[in-house]
From TrEMBL:
Listed name of the protein: Calmodulin-binding protein
Pfam families hit by this protein: 2_5_RNA_ligase2
InterPro entries: Cyclic_Pdiesterase
Superkingdom to which the source organism belongs: Eukaryota
Amino acid sequence: MYRCNGCKYFSMSIPVGERSESGERKSKCVSMSEGFAIELYLDPALENQVLKAWNVLARRQITTHLIEMESRPHITLFSAPFLEPSKLESLLRTFASKHDPLSLSFSSVGTFPSNSDNLLFLAPTPSLSLLQFQSHLCDAIRKEGLEISDDFAFNSWIPYCSVAHHVPKNRMPEAFSLLRELKLPVAGYATDIALVQFSPVRELFSFVLGNNVDS
């Protein structure tokens, strides 16, 4: 186990292996507080790899929180407690139409050192394309008069995809070990961008990257 991103989270590498073919699961996106979030959704095969992690932890009765909340695997690009969705619909439609799907490779499992929710996540291999995508999105949002919090600033944002919330502290090592079943890295694409409201979780609209038609 080692520290990544300037000691902002702990990560554990997983041996390389084959990944399974998969189907698609449709559900809602979720976050752990109240407000709005812009999320990146994954292609069906990559999404399935994340769902495998959820199911591994559920079978061992470690946590079923994300399953119970009907969360959808995602990477959060931006979040705010208050905003006017109508101001972002046209922005996100245009933004999505100008950007192709993003290549992703989840290569490690991580957790944050100060983590009251006992969160576990998959960390993507850092890529300039992903960082620029998020930075350009925040620039566009800022032009709409919305404030970008420090967590989503270019030099502070940490991309990750949650695989577990509220893991009992005494079972965190076991959860890390079980996630070896994922045989990381797993690769795929981010294919859609969505605005969601929570809680309760509700997807307001989403757009396919490279296409201006609603997904």
